[in-house]
Amino acid sequence: MLPTARAVIEAMREDPLTVTLQVSLAVYALPWEELATFFQQLALEGKMHYEVLFRAVQGLEKISSRNDINELIHLEEILAPSDDEKLRCIALAALITQSKVQGWNDELKQRLYAFRNDPSPMVAEKAQFTLLFDT
Questions:
Q1: pTM over cut 0.90
Q2: Within a 13 Å sphere around the CA of 105, how many CA atoms are in the beta-carbon half?
């Protein structure tokens, strides 16, 4: 179904009112590296408004049924060093989802601590209180 999902997302790209729908479909269908590129493109095009960000984060935090969920680290690794705080917020959501699947091991905790030092309050605040609420 991946080719169909790609075709639907591509068909919707012309309509700026479908970006949140595109994100919802992309989170469930695209391979993680392709999803990272998709998010980077939205940010580059100025389409990563807060409703889109919310949908991306919400989708990632609720998706644990994908058969490639253990490879979610690729999305995080690509987006975490971004200059865009919204992309870093999505990377943090990917980290949180990984913790739900495998628990907070030392490696995941170290990456969470890095997000706690993020220059963006939006990212740092969520990271600061993640362990408090998600353990």
A1: yes
A2: 4
